[in-house]
Design a protein that fits this description.
Helices cover 63% and strands 5% of the residues.
């Protein structure tokens, strides 16, 4: 029996990944010189977590759907796929950025390192189409720890 699936616009996911990478890089590069920019990390954590549970609040995806796509700046790329692994991966990134935020004041090097890890994984997904968060989602489902419907796509894009 085939797993139920839907259509996911992978262009929206790519815009989301680009936003994550760009935001973390600005905080990582400029934050040590201008500390107020470090607030971008907890703000990004909030954006990702809100977007995970309320898609209408997913800032970068809304930028895609309301600005970039209607103006033809980014073309849609609908793919037969399930949204759940991508949402899980986004939430996982949000959790790691929240943990990163906790470390930013007492141990900024640790906080920035964790945030950079999130950016690197988002970049790998953006550039190569491998989504570690999606893979974790499927493995947790396979182990019976979460209810995850298997998909023909074992690597997706967040």
């Amino acid at each position: 029996m085939a797993a139920p699936s839907g259509v996911v616009d992978h262009s929206a996911l790519k815009v989301n990944q680009t936003g994550i990478v760009a935001t973390v890089l600005v905080a990582f590069i400029a934050g040590p010189f201008f500390r107020p920019l470090l607030v971008l990390i907890p703000l990004l954590a909030v954006v990702l977590l809100l977007g995970t549970f309320a898609p209408q609040l997913a800032l970068f995806k809304q930028l895609y759907f309301k600005v970039l796509k209607p103006r033809g700046i980014v073309k849609p790329r609908p793919v037969q796929d399930r949204p759940e692994p991508h949402n899980f991966a986004q939430g996982l990134g949000g959790v790691f950025l929240a943990v990163s935020s906790v470390f930013l004041l007492p141990l900024p090097v640790v906080g920035l390192a964790i945030a950079l890890l999130v950016a690197v994984l988002a970049f790998i997904n953006l550039a190569f189409g491998y989504c570690l968060g999606c893979q974790i989602y499927y493995q947790l489902g396979r182990a019976g720890l979460i209810k995850a419907t298997p998909s023909s796509r074992t690597t997706g894009t967040v």
